[in-house]
Amino acid sequence: MIMKTALFETHVKLQARMIPFAGWEMPIQYKGILAESSAVRNCGGIFDVSHMGRIHISGDQSTNLLDWIETGNIETLRQGRARYSLICNEAGGILDDTVTYRLDDNKYLLICNASNRDTILDWINLWRNEKYPDTHIDDITPDTVMIAVQGPSVATLMDQLSPQQPSSLRFFGCMEISVSGIKALIGRTGYTGEDGFELVINTKDGTEIWNILMNHGMSPCGLGARDVLRLEAGLALHGSDIDPSVSPLEAGLGRFVKLKKDFIGAPVLRLQQQSGLKKQLVGLYVEGRNIPRHGYPICLQEHVVGKISSGGYSPTLDRNIAMGYVPPQWSSLGQNLKVDIRGKLAEATVTALPFYTRK
Predict the structure, then answer these.
(1) Is there a contact between 121 and 139 (Cβ–Cβ < 8 Å)?
(2) Extended strands (E) in the chain
(3) Chain mean position to CA 69
(4) Among 75, 166, 305, 354, whose CB has the most other CB atoms within 10 angstroms?
(5) Whole-Å CA distances, 92 to 87, 223, 248, 251
(6) What is the pLDDT of residues 234-252, one digit of tens each?
(7) Residues 126, 250 contacting (CB under 8 angstroms)
């Protein structure tokens, strides 16, 4: 059965185009993907991201559990801070990419992707039962709403709405605040390449917060704009750019992997680091009008050497961009390649990621 977020009726009233996504009925767009992308880059926009998994993990062994399943160092994560990390299987493949907030000494909030929520819950419970029984797992996804508010005007606006001055937070900081008198957990995080925040709120307050943000000039934005913005920012999407067949090192996420500590998949990743990679994620500028899509072959001359993982038109850069995997010998900046787009070869050039960085 397809699920609906607490903001579903709000989206319908705004005449959003709704589609099934990761088991949820979600807004793909309101006024249009290009207009919504522009709003975020130039002012601010709001996204319903309540489909994302939200899992409370607490207890005396909670830190040890998270340190074991995540590639990042959770033990050193301070209260009031968040950390991006990967959860790998024993073969070093990426089960999911996550953000973990440390709320207290032995209390965390883990944010995972919607399509992986059941997988990650099962994985956490497996290792809780196996190694860390003094840990409590609580899936709060159904009881909360999550709203991302992103863009250059957002910090100023949030300071107007909250006496706790959210602009004082560093990037990847978090704290409890009130927004026009409504309690929320706020993190200075996001998935657009812009400054902004993500708010976790009780379900009953979600619509009110959404309307407050809209009434203060924030444009409602759908998953279509979110995908365009994250691609411009060179941010990986699980299920497209990363999955269990890909390691964090191959995906260019090695900076989020602490190989000196023990975690699931660490022995394989250490060996991979020593022996070298067989494939590597790169950014590509793709010439022509045709759009490079997920799965399209990447060619050297006429020989297939890799494939596109994500691609599309960038309204910010006014050109086609893509990410994809190629052997390391063909991954140098400036390397000329081609993308097979429905039987026609389009010129492509390896370029640095991210494609877009905010000023």
Answers:
(1) yes
(2) 3-4, 17-21, 24-29, 45-48, 53-58, 82-88, 94-104, 107-112, 136-139, 144-150, 174-179, 182-187, 196-202, 219-221, 280-286, 297-300, 303-314, 319-326, 336-341, 344-351
(3) 18
(4) 166
(5) 9, 29, 8, 12
(6) 999 999 999 999 999 999 9
(7) no
CA distance 212 to 210: 6
Tens digit of pLDDT for each residue in 6-65? Answer: 999 999 999 999 999 999 999 999 999 999 999 999 999 999 999 999 999 999 999 999
CA distance linking residue 213 with residue 227, whole number of Å: 21
Return the structure tokens found at 268: 């394989």
Indicate yes or no: pTM above 0.70: yes
Rounded to whole angstroms, the Cα distance separating 233 from 259 reads 26
| C-alpha separations of 147 from 125, 131, 190, 214, 277 in Å | 27, 34, 10, 12, 37
Distance CA 36, CA 43 (A): 10
